[in-house]
Design brief:
2 domains; single chain; 8 helices; five-stranded mixed sheet; 5 strands
């Protein structure tokens, strides 16, 4: 009977250690969608009307043409259990919003069902859009409309103010002429803690019944494995690579990075 318990414990420990040292299997990163053809406004919920999209694209194009900065709106239904800070940071990183040289990207992420927003600011724009100012803009210009389910007006007003801040930083002015665009169309933390406790318990079993053989094996395996740096930059935009295509004619993203600045809130 003791042998059966020992064998079972070793088997379970092996499985869990494999999962533990393969983070993509334990807790995968958020599944980030590809940018839409509109580039500056990416509405995956069909919440925004065409007039709002025309405005956001027109202003976004003008901002990029005059400053090189890229201001992007993303509207999703749900964060699927991920915290919005991690989701926004990963999206910013994968898309590579802003230029690689200046890191002058801005992301406004709206999660409709979760009723949360996040403004992620590229390193190069942290002087123009501080954490405090990014929060103030959302609370004053966007949230009151969000509470009335008027996402079009809230997003347009906030985006316009951010665009003005970027333009001021670069010493230019914006006309904001609207052109019609014709395009074809925290439970995770608790789970992690429980998983860690299970790993610690089974490691103790390995030390008691198996003299730590499995633990030493996995430690040697990790030491000899060069992985762990995460995806490198490339076509997908990971590591600052940036999305470089798009059939809309607006071009792609430039490989910018976020310093983690910005603000978060809800309504």
């Amino acid at each position: 009977m003791k042998t059966i318990y020992k064998t079972t414990a070793i088997f379970l420990l092996t499985i869990l250690l494999v999962l533990c040292f393969n983070p993509t299997m334990v807790k995968a990163k958020p599944k980030i969608p590809a940018p839409t053809n509109l580039k500056y406004v990416n509405d995956y919920t069909n919440t925004l009307n065409q007039s709002s999209k025309d405005f956001l694209v027109s202003v976004g194009k003008e901002v990029e043409a005059k400053t090189g900065a890229q201001a992007v709106v993303v509207v999703i239904n749900s964060l699927e259990g991920y915290d919005i800070q991690s989701y926004a940071y990963e999206l910013f990183r994968q898309w590579g919003i802003g230029s690689r040289e200046e890191n002058n990207g801005l992301l406004i992420l709206i999660a409709i069902q979760d009723r949360k927003w996040k403004v992620e600011v590229g390193i190069g724009l942290e002087g123009a859009i501080t954490d405090i100012s990014s929060a103030r803009v959302m609370e004053e210009y966007a949230v009151p409309y969000f509470k009335e389910n008027n996402y079009d007006e809230g997003i347009k007003r906030a985006y316009s103010v951010y665009a003005d801040s970027i333009a001021k930083e670069y010493g230019v002015s914006l006309e904001k002429n609207i052109e019609e665009i014709n395009i074809d169309n925290d439970d995770g933390d608790l789970s992690g803690a429980i998983f860690l406790l299970i790993i610690m318990f089974l490691t103790l079993i390995d030390l008691i019944f198996n003299r730590g053989r499995l633990l030493r094996f996995f430690l040697r395996l990790i030491a000899s494995n060069p992985r762990g740096r995460g995806p490198r930059g490339g076509r997908g935009g990971f590591g600052g690579g940036g999305y470089s295509g798009g059939s809309s004619g607006f071009g792609g993203f430039g490989g910018g990075k976020s310093g983690g600045g910005g603000s978060t809130g809800g309504w």
